[in-house]
Amino acid sequence: MDQPDSKNILKFRQRMPVPVRGFLVVVGLFACLMPVWDLRRLFWPVTPFTAIALVFALGAASVGGAFIFAGLYGRNVLWTIRPGRIRIISRSFIGRPRSVTFLPRSGARLEVEEDKSSDGPDYWRVALIATDGKRYRLDKHTSPAEAEAEYRRVDRLFHGRAAA
Q1: 82, β-bridge pairs
Q2: Residues 116 and 101 reside in one and the same domain
Q3: 82: left (phi over 0), alpha (psi -120 to 50) or beta
Q4: At 82, is the secondary structure helix, strand, or coil?
Q5: Count of domains forming the chain
Q6: How far apart are CA 11 and CA 77, in angstroms?
């Protein structure tokens, strides 16, 4: 089987580095366990203050759990664009990889969207809009010209003729 020409394939990776994952899990564990350790004398024997300590511990666990969840289930995404097809594979540290493929005739479309941030500069990014309305986004660009150039490259391949 012939190898496809590399100029007919675009790949975009969006990764969450392992050190960032580890940091999020450690911070989450700290947030969950520190209040329990600090308030341990209020849990036993049971007193009226036990309920208050339990509320604090559960509140901290909800925040810590969100950090742990983000560390374990944060996605690594790979876009592979070939003539007539875009395939998006997303994987997390735990769980099964998910893959979705889009064809031009399926009704999926590409556009450049502006991300107006209230606390920083505006960004532009290429977005793929599925027929069900779900949006898949590529990395941010600081200028609309960069995003438009990336859009043209992706759109040229996406709407190009698929190899047999």
Answers
A1: 85
A2: yes
A3: beta
A4: strand
A5: 2
A6: 10
- Name residue 81's amino acid: I
Q: Are residues 132 and 96 in the same domain?
A: yes
Entry pTM: 0.76
Q: Is the pLDDT of residue 78 over 90?
A: yes
Integer Cα distance of 85 and 162 in angstroms: 7
Residues 86 and 67 occupy one common structural domain: no
Q: Is residue 1 part of a domain?
A: no
**82-137 per-position pLDDT tens digit:** 999 999 999 988 888 999 999 988 889 999 999 877 677 889 999 999 999 999 99
Same domain for 91 and 62, yes or no, is no
In degrees, rounded to 5, the angle at the alpha carbon of residue 15 between the alpha carbons of residues 121 and 95 is: 130
76: left (phi over 0), alpha (psi -120 to 50) or beta: beta
Regarding whether 61 and 95 lie in a shared domain, the answer is: no
| E strand residue ranges, the chain | 10-14, 76-82, 85-91, 98-102, 109-115, 123-129, 135-137
